Each structure stands twice: as structure tokens, then as C-alpha cells.
Amino acid sequence: MNSTNRLRARVFSALILAFAFVAGGIGVSAQDAPPSYWFAGTRLIFATLEARDGESAVAVTDPGLSRLLARVGATLAYASGQRYVAITTADRRLIAFAVGDARVRVANASIRLPFAPYLEGESVFLPLTAVARALDVLPVPGEGSETILQPQLAALDVRADGGKSYLVARGATALRPTVVEDTPGRLTIAFTGLGSALASTRRIALPGLVSAQVAVSGSARAPITTVTFATSADGSHVVFPVAAPNELELGFAPRGLALDPLPPPRPVLVAAQPPVVPGGATATSGVHVPPAPPIPSGSEAPASASPGAVASPAVVITNVAIAPTEAGATVAVALAGAASFDWHRLSDNRFYIDIHGATLGDAGRDEHPNLPVLESVRVRQIGTPLAPIVRVALSLIGPKRVDVQPNDGGFTLIVGASDALDAARSGYGRIGGPDPNPTAIAAPVDATPPPGFASPVPLASELPWKYGNASPVPAANAPAGANPRLIVLDPGHGGSDTGTAHSGLVEKTICMDIANRLRSLLVAQGWIVKMTRTDDSDVYGPNASDINELQARVNVANFNAARMFISIHVNYFSDPATRGTTTYYTKPQDLALAKAVQRNVIPVANTYDDGVRHGHLYVTNHTTMPAVLVETAFISNPGDVAKMQSPAFLQNMAQGIANGVKEYAGVPRAAVSSTADGSR
Fold first, then answer.
1. Cβ neighbours of residue 631 under 8 Å, at least 6 residues apart?
2. In the 3-class helix/strand/coil scheme, how is 584-610 assigned residue by residue?
3. Taking the C-alpha atoms of 354, 357, 362 and 367 in order, what is their torsion angle to the nearest 10 degrees?
């Protein structure tokens, strides 16, 4: 299927997160009648509800909160006495609270809270309606002091690919649509039990899909949301299976085009700056929309990001040019806009520079210029939708000197012919924009760069927020364990490498699911967690060699000086009777961690104990800290397959690994704080 010239458009989003957390929120005061909360026709009984700044506070251990989370398919991780609370939604978004911090982190957005979570006794108290909004559950007033926690149809996202259109609906609870009407040019589906704050009408104007209308009926306790799609009169549509129960994906095709049984992979959205909405909150639905084809006169333009979103990122890489010189080579990078960057020299003769907040103007590059100093140049998009990064990576022939020379239109990497064995390992700077003196600074080991730039070997206290993707990166020669609270998780495979697939399961998907769950549990214990990948992507690059891909994963741990490294995989064997969980180690220092993980996983996940085994695996052999690779179960064994099809098993597997980490390393020190600014 032709996936070039993709047109992506966010149709509309309820921006549940962006409804004012402070002004106009539903709350209680000490003088009000005790609040009564209802969800999906059932009254929620809370045992620990407290009034706090005109809002309801609830303990993370409250059974009423547990029931609410279970109904929306979310899980909460919190270790008694710790500072952090992590909630993982049904579609694997991470919602992170910290004691004393009046912000909640949802995916990659930071949203203001009506009050900071606080520690009382052995439990943390959270703003109840803020938790609900983060779960796409909207508090609406009922009778008297009654509040209805109404699950929402939260978003409808649409994209065009290969002359067809694909729409993803996301709700707070499992989506079980009823087809009300299916006629040429019109498809109407109803979602019982879901309300919606989406715009009532939106023109789409993409192949096979003209517009969408949203109507809400029923009562506050029993809402019904109906969505009517205007489609091509002679086109076709299909409902696709999706992994998350709270999602529904539809495909639309005009006449003459057939829809495949499965949709194409969803593109990684490149986000613009999110819009600011009333109450000081920041919306998270702004997405980058590439230039659209001309719209015929008199017709309405396709829907783009929510009102107020910037249509495109501030920095676009417009060109990368490689040229030989008498003394070596140059790699000239042209960009539109201003950006910060950081660069790193690796011990294996590689050099890379990351341009933050930047996107590629065209496809990435993989060049082999056949120069005496330069083996290859790779240019690719990394980062996340809300924090895009363009990485330019050089494979040098020997430890050649590389200088970064900023200029008005970008920067040039100057590769010299001489070796530079004592060159700086990292640096940072700023390019483009109004700054008349753009700079590139080499960072010595004891340097403290400005916020947002890479830092050599930061102390644990210098890592203010453990969920972001721009956490400081130590120098390449940092000693193992220099970040004693950092754990690197490695979800196996990803992107162009699916891993093994069998019985309708795909290894890369299972690995990502378990790793996300494990991340939440470790964060709740007080660990800082960094993932080698956070989505379905390659770490080094598509179709890279095994060594390049595996080394890229190792680098995440080594260059961040992690305390430990855990790789998650799924096993396969030709004999379907082979089953169970195996934990591999390579180095002597790995063994204690491997034994602790295996010992704790087996009783919690209820898998066959296939043992702790020594193996010369690349990622455990080349990491400089204790490292293990967990083969969670056999995708070739019918019994293990049945287990892996259950979300409860995936959660238990993550819990068992987290228990093993706790047995091996305890909990990180200085993880508890009740101060307003989070200082320790």
C-alpha cells in the first residue's frame, strides 16, 4: 500500500484533560453536603474522601477508586511511603502524579492540578475529578450534591493513507458500538453508556469520508453518543480489530479501491505546541498536519488540529548535504527556525547530534559516502509526538575529530582527518533564530549545561521528572551505576522487527505491553525509568543490522549510567510442549538480579519455572551494569499462549519482575517528599 504523501488530520478531541482543573471545576467544601459519585449507573462508595481546596481528595488505596479504575481498564501502581503514583490506562497511556507537585503528567503533557497530591499516613491523596478527567471520564452535575462521573467518547482521529481514510475512536471504557444505519453515503453508530464533549459537526473531506456528526442523548447517568459519518455514496467501509478495548478503528475507501483486512500502521504523529485553554491547562491534541492538496473553491478545508494549535512545528530540517574536503568531510544541515541541540561522541567511533523540537522536511537518510573518514550518515526522526527530535548520526572511520559549527541557516559537522583520542564526549548549543551568536559548546565532565540540554552524569537529585523524554544524558564514559535510581527497560524487537509471531500473537506487541506495565510499577517504587523504545519503532533504524539495533539498546543504558537493565522478550521453540519463563544473564554481576526476578515472577505469573540460564546474549553481555533478559513465556506453547492473551497475566508478569527488582535492590533512597517543590 502506498504510504507516501500521507495526509493526517486530527478530526476533533474532547480535550478532557484540558477542561479547567481549577476554575469552574466540580468540587466540595467543608460546608457542603457529603458528595455522592455515580459511575455507569452505579454509586461509587469512597472510604477516604476528603475536602481539599474546593475539590475532593481520595486515597490511592480507596476501594472506590479501585473500582473506578477497574471499570475503565486502568491499573494503579503505588508503593507505600513513596512519592510517585502511576496509572496506566487501557490504551497504555501513563498518568503520573508526584507528592507535592501540582501537575499531572499524562503521556507527554503536563497539566495543572487544583492542588498537589499529598501524603497522609501511608497513603497518597489525589484530586478525584482530576484523576477522572485524565481517564476520559467527565464529572457532570447531578441532583443536589450528586456528581456523575460520565465516561466519554473522547476522541475521533482520522488520517488518509494510500487514497483511503482511517478513523480511530477512543473512549473511556470498552467501545461496543451498535450500527444504527448503514446505507450508501451514510453510516451511523451508537455508543451506549458514553457521553461526549466533541464538536457536533466537523467537515473531514478525505478519501471516502466527507464529514462526521456527533449527537448525545439519554440522561447524565445513561448517556448515548451517536456518530453519523457521511461517506462516499459508492464507496466502502470496514471495522478493524484493535488491540485496546477502548478503541475502534474504521476504514473508508472511495469507489474503485478495496480495503485490506488490516489497516496500515498508524504514523507517529508530530505534535505542534499544544494550545492553551482556560484554567491554565494545556491541551494535548495538537498535531502536525502536513500541507494538504488544493481544496476546490467553495468547499471546506479538511479538519486540522484543535483551535489554537500551531499548524506546524517551529523547526524543520530542510536539507542535509555531505561533501568531501581536503582534510576530511563536511555534513551540512539546513533548517528553518531556531533549535537547541546536544551532541555525543561514542566510544565505538560514532558521533550523533540531536536537534530538539525538530521534524524532517522529507524522508530520513541512510548514506554511505565512501570517504576515508566517514563510513555512513544516518538522518532520522526520533523522540515523541510532543517532543520530536531529528538525529544526525555519523559512523566514523577511526576516532576522527568532529567539530560542530553553527551558522545562520543551521550547522555544519566538520570531520577532520586526524584522530582525536582526548576529544570531549558531549556538548550542547543553539542554532538558528534571532540569536546573533549561535554556539556549540563542548561539555567537560563537570559542566552544568542550561535546562533542556544534555548533562554529563547527573545526580539522582538533578532528575526532576522521571517520565519525560528529555532527561539529561551522561557522557559516554560515565561509570556504570552513576545514576543509582535509573532503570532502563528494553521492550524486545519493534518497528521493522516484529520478533516471533504465532497463534495470532506478535512478540513486539506483547513486549511493549509488559514493559509499559512494568514501567508504572517501578515508577511507583520510586525508580527513574527510561525505555529503549516507547512505541512500535526501531531503536537504531528500520531494517538495521542486528548488531546496530542491539548496540543502540545497550547505548541507552550505558550512556545513561543506569543502575540496571531489563530486556523483555517472548520465547519460541519448535516443540510446542516447551513452556514457561526463563531469565538469562551473562556477566557474574547479573546473576543476583536474574535469580531475584525469576524467583518472584513464577509464583505471581503462575508460569512454569524454566530456570535462570547463562547465555552470551548481546544486550546482557555489552551492558556495563547488572542486566537480565526475561523470556516471559513461549508463544509456541498453547498453554502459555492462553495466558498471554489475558491482560491480567501481562500485569502479573510485570508485577513479578517489579517484585524481583525490589528484592534485589530494595527501593531507591530519597524517594519520599512532602514538600511543595519536591525538594529533598
1. 569, 570, 571, 581, 582, 583, 584, 610
2. EECCHHHHHHHHHHHHHHHHHHCCCEE
3. 0
Q: What's the rounded Cα separation, in Å, for the pair 483 and 243?
A: 35
What is the rounded CA–CA span in Å between residue 179 and residue 190? 6
Which three cell numbers, joined as nine digits, stand for 184?
450508501
Quick one: pLDDT at residue 424? 67
Higher pLDDT, residue 670 or 100: 100
Q: Residue 249: how many CB atoms within 10 A of its CB?
A: 19
Residue 380 is predicted with a pLDDT of 86
Q: How far is CA 343 from CA 208, 303, 390, 413, in A?
A: 45, 38, 12, 11
Contacts 24+ apart (CB under 8 A), 113-121: 113/21, 114/21, 114/22, 114/25, 114/27, 114/53, 114/54, 114/55, 115/52, 115/53, 115/55, 115/57, 116/676, 117/85, 118/52, 118/57, 118/674, 119/83, 119/672, 119/674, 120/59
Residue pair 401/413 in contact by the 8 Å Cβ criterion: no
Contact 425, 402 (CB under 8 A): no
Average pLDDT of the chain is 76
CA distance 136 to 278: 18
Amino acid at 246: N
Sheet arrangement for strand 42-44: 42-44, 36-39, 146-151, 137-141
Tell me how far apart the alpha carbons of residues 33 and 26 are, in angstroms, rounded to a whole number. 13
Query: What is the predicted pLDDT for the residue at 368?
Result: 86
Share of the chain above pLDDT 70, in %: 75
The pLDDT, as a whole number, for residue 482 is 63
Rounded Cα distance between 386 and 249, Å, is 23
pLDDT at 440: 52
Measured distance CA(145)–CA(35) in Å, rounded? 5
Mean pLDDT, residues 342-370: 81
Q: What are phi and psi of 417, to 5 degrees?
A: -80, -20
- Residues facing 190 on adjacent strands: 178, 226
SS3 call for 445:
coil
Q: Tell me, what's the pLDDT at 274?
A: 29
Q: Would you mind telling me the total number of residues written for the chain in this entry?
A: 680
Sheet holding 439-442, edge to edge: 365-367, 374-384, 387-396, 350-356, 339-345, 426-431, 439-442
Q: What is the DSSP string of 64-124?
A: HHHHHHHHTT-EEE--TT-SEEEEE-TT--EEEEETT-SEEEETTEEEE-SS--EEETTEE
Q: How far apart are CA 89 and CA 136, in angstroms?
A: 10
The answer on pLDDT for 283 being more than 80 is no
The pair phi, psi for residue 362, each rounded to 5°, is -145, -165
DSSP string, 157-168: EEEEETTEEEEE
Distance, in Å, from the CA atom of 207 to the CA atom of 211, rounded to the nearest integer, reads 11
586 contacts: CB under 8 Å, gap ≥ 6: 614, 615, 616, 617, 620, 621, 627
Q: Out of 26-30, 235-239, 327-331, which region has the weakest mean confidence (pLDDT)?
A: 26-30
Q: How far lies 260's CA from each of 228, 391, 521, 540, 652, in Å?
A: 23, 34, 38, 30, 35
Angle at 328 between CA 322 and CA 329, to 5 degrees: 10
Measure the CA–CA gap between 48 and 61, rounded to whole angstroms.
9
pLDDT digits (tens, 9 = 90+) for 536-560: 888 888 877 777 788 889 988 888 8
pLDDT tens by residue, 142-197: 877 789 999 999 888 888 888 889 988 889 988 888 899 999 899 999 999 999 88
The answer to pTM > 0.85 is: no
Q: How far apart (Å, rounded) are the C-alpha atoms in residues 396 and 400?
A: 7
Among residues 453, 472, 469, 452, which one has the least CA distance to residue 461?
A: 472
Q: Residue 325: which H helix or E strand, with range?
A: strand 315-325
Tens-place pLDDT, residues 602-635: 999 999 999 999 888 889 988 889 999 999 999 9
